[in-house]
Amino acid sequence: MNKRKFFYKLMLSSAAVLIGFAVSPMTFAQGSSTFADTNVEYTFEVPDERWKMTVKPTAANPSVEYVFVDRLDGHFEVRKSTAVRNAAMSDVIRDEETKLQFLPGFVAGREENFGGKLSGSVYNFEFVRAGRPMSGRFYFLRSGETVY
Q: What is the mean pLDDT of residues 3-12?
C-alpha cells in the first residue's frame, strides 16, 4: 500500500470515529467536502459543512484543526510527530498524557489497541472546560518513526 493511500485511509477512519461521537447521524446527509493540502501527505472527507477549519497546515506546522459549530461541541485535530522506531506506543501516549494532566478536572482513561485496515492505539480521558464535563479521545497511528 503506498504512503498516500495509507494516510488517506488513516485520516478517513479517524475522522469518521471522532465525528460519530460529536455529531448526530442526521448530519451526515448534509453536504461534505474533501480536505487536501500541499503541505501534508493525507486527505480526508469532512462530512458536514458545519465543521470549519480553524488551523490550516503550513510547511513549518503540518497540523490541521476543525471545529464543529463551537469548540465545545466538537474539535478535531491531526498532528504529525516523530517517535523512536522501537519505542512502545504506550510510551508515546504517556508523553501526551504528561501534557494533558494539567487540564482542569483531568481524569486519565484507558489505553486500547485497535486493528483492522489500520492499527494503532486510542487513549480516552475526561476533563472540564468552561464548567462543562468533556471527554477526549486521541488516536495514535504509526508509520515507522512518524506518529499521527
A: 47
